[in-house]
Amino acid sequence: MFKNRLDFTGNPLELLRQVEDNFVSKKVRHSNKWVTTAKGVMSKSNRYQDALEVFGIKFDKTRDRANRTILTIIRDVDTCDNFVAPSQSEKGD
Known about the structure:
Elements: E1 7-10, H1 12-23, H2 26-29, H3 38-54, E2 57-63, E3 69-75, H4 77-82
Antiparallel strand pairs: 1-3, 2-3
């Protein structure tokens, strides 16, 4: 999704299908912890929104005329590419 593109716009189930098709193994998809509904996708996206923003991934949630949720996800390339995870040696071992 974000390897070749910098954004996504669609409903939560479209996002779920793209993630499942491109990034997730069958074992994970069949796990009882894996979300399978639009409500589950929205719940997880709301929960992890702040953490993903640290990596430059921003969410915008809107409603269309039929009152369906539309997600717009944008990856800020500068923030994502400049993020450096702390190494084990920096943690003071």
